[in-house]
Specification:
By secondary structure, the protein is an alpha/beta fold. It has a five-stranded parallel β-sheet, sandwiched between helices. The protein starts with a strand and ends with a helix. It has one domain: P-loop containing nucleotide triphosphate hydrolases (Rossmann fold), CATH 3.40.50.300.
Length: 168
């Protein structure tokens, strides 16, 4: 019998630590591969239209399906903002998950910790200040999603990664 693959969709508001956690998990989990949804829509100028939203979902699903069908990988890690259930559903319905254990996870953070993280990123030049208010506004949206919630407040990347590994 073919081994089940793990497909982890990890969402959270901008600055919560999705990419950092996935990079950690990629190193810790054998035969894993990581896709950040932002890599599928890195444009200048960045335009949000019906056409570009369709394109990014197609790009993401094409890559994820390739990873799912590749025998080299046992765990596929995907992260993106995914602040609406419709985004998660639109991705999942285009994936061949028949051989996968799928876990949809939201990394949760309170506004104070998020503000500290993003302000640190702004000082480092990683993010611009416009991201801060948009990200804070999205925090409450994750409570209503059909996902496993992981509290990231006052936790290290290693502690968050360990909690996610316990789900496998």
């Amino acid at each position: 019998m073919k081994n089940m693959k793990n497909l982890l969709l990890i969402g959270g508001t901008m600055g919560v630590g999705k990419t950092t956690v996935c990079q950690s998990l990629k190193k810790e989990l054998p035969n894993s591969v990581f896709l950040d949804g932002d890599w599928c829509w890195d444009a200048d100028p960045f335009r949000v239209t019906e056409e570009t939203k369709k394109m990014v979902i197609d790009n993401i699903c094409h890559l994820l399906n390739n990873f799912i069908h590749c025998s080299a990988y046992n765990t596929i890690l995907f992260c993106w903002v995914m602040h609406q259930q419709g985004i998660i559903d639109s991705i999942l319905q285009k994936l061949d998950t028949s051989g996968c254990a799928v876990k949809c996870i939201s990394l949760m953070v309170n506004k104070e910790n998020l503000r500290k993280r993003i302000e640190t990123d702004i000082r480092k030049g990683i993010r611009n200040k416009e991201v801060l208010e948009r990200s804070i506004q999205r925090v409450p949206l994750y409570r209503d999603l059909n996902t496993i919630k992981i509290d990231t407040n006052q936790k290290t990347v290693q502690e968050i990664s360990s909690e996610i590994k316990c789900l496998l």
